[in-house]
Amino acid sequence: MGSNLMNMVLLICKTLMNHMHHFQPKLNEMKIREIIHSSNKKRFEIKNGRICALYGHSVPGIIKRREAVPPKILYHGTAHRFLPSIQKEGLLPMGRQYVHLSADIPMAESVGKRRDDNPAILQVNASPAYKDGIQFYIGNEEVWLCDHVPVKYLKQIK
């Protein structure tokens, strides 16, 4: 993350803390840590006293991640209306920096329900994809990231 952006994030965090203190006097760094760690979406982390977005949706440019060996199977929840495109092109970031994959089916269902009450669940055969050169990155305990998942590694299970 660039130093200008990081300075802006620090300024925003300090301003937020100062503002929030008037409304929530008990709000402090420990409370913010508790909120971040108890969130079921795990979208933020605290590193070196800084609040950072894990995925960088609103940050121009790519946030570089360290490659990691994925579990054998990952999952992706999606709306049924997207299946024809996925069956042709595989999973693409679609305006995000990375394709988001879930470590388990319940998380994939939760993600998919944002766009479909009864989402399709795709099994991602991550181990063979990784062996064939697809790079995977850890997002958090429940989310894995990659640049693209070709169709041959996907299987619809729901």
UniProtKB/TrEMBL annotation:
Belongs to the KptA/TPT1 family. It holds the Pfam family PTS_2-RNA. One of its GO terms (biological process) is tRNA splicing, via endonucleolytic cleavage and ligation. It comes from the Bacteria. Keywords: NAD, Transferase. PANTHER family: PUTATIVE PHOSPHOTRANSFERASE, TRNA 2'-PHOSPHOTRANSFERASE 1. This is RNA 2'-phosphotransferase. InterPro entries: Ptrans_KptA/Tpt1 (IPR002745), RNA_2'-PTrans_C (IPR042081). GO terms for molecular function: tRNA 2'-phosphotransferase activity.
